[in-house]
Amino acid sequence: MTVALETVSTGAPTTVSGLLGDAYRQLVQVCPALTARVADPAADFTRTGFSGAELTKDQGALEAFLSAEDSRIRERYDHVPRRDVAASRALHDYAWSVGLLMSGVWYLTGRVPRVRPEDVRIDLSSGTFEITPGPDLACLPDDSAGTLPGVLTVPHEEALRAELRVAVADHMEPLLSAIGPYIRRGPRALWGLVTDDLVSGIWYLGRMLGREPDSVRAATALLPSAVTPFPGGADFRHLTGGDGRQHPTRTRLGCCLYYTIRPAEACATCPRTCDAERLRRIES
């Protein structure tokens, strides 16, 4: 099944970083909820905040990252969050944003960038992510980008989806190890949150493009079921509204704990509304 959309120009490629820079810029334009920018070597932004790599190696950097999220919650919602809530919200924002930077390029162009933790920086004052286009890219054999040095060509679309799953997992694993003690939940719950954010990012992008059914199919093809380390699949189902129209939905595998901040506004897909046995599995 072909899930890529040729919405980014695929003219004569020059460098992998150039191709990715163009794709990231379009992605940011299409997705207003994605607070990100492409690195400008001449800008001061690159000297502020912390990289994803620093968050995994420097406890002071990680605690500053979590403290910034705590401050945003207090200011935005007039609410004092628990420590694990601030950490969960920070992880959710990171996983959704960085996951979409990878999955969005895949969805738009049929190419998979491998974003390393050092390729991402976060401005703690604004929560803006900065992405430095890297040299690593995977694509299909008939893609013109395959002629560039260092580009990996894979034989078919399932192999390309596998590259995306590995890229996201490799990026997130060290952060989950570092942030886990602050969140106080087990690996299944943490990887469940990453799964949810990977799926929801693709779903959101499809809605922004007016192609929700296509994005649901793409997310389902990416995660048709549990694929290590992701503990479950996209698992979409359809609900029928009062107008007779069907709407896609799914139950989240993990929880960002937003319901502790605004209980009346909990996500419709929040697992905290599920039965006690499912909640026990989520927390394990």
UniProtKB/TrEMBL annotation:
GO terms for molecular function: 2 iron, 2 sulfur cluster binding. This is Iron-sulfur protein. Residues 252-272 form the Ferric siderophore reductase C-terminal domain. It comes from the Bacteria. It comes from Streptomyces dioscori. The lineage of its organism: Bacteria, Bacillati, Actinomycetota, Actinomycetes, Kitasatosporales. Pfam families: FhuF_C (PF11575).
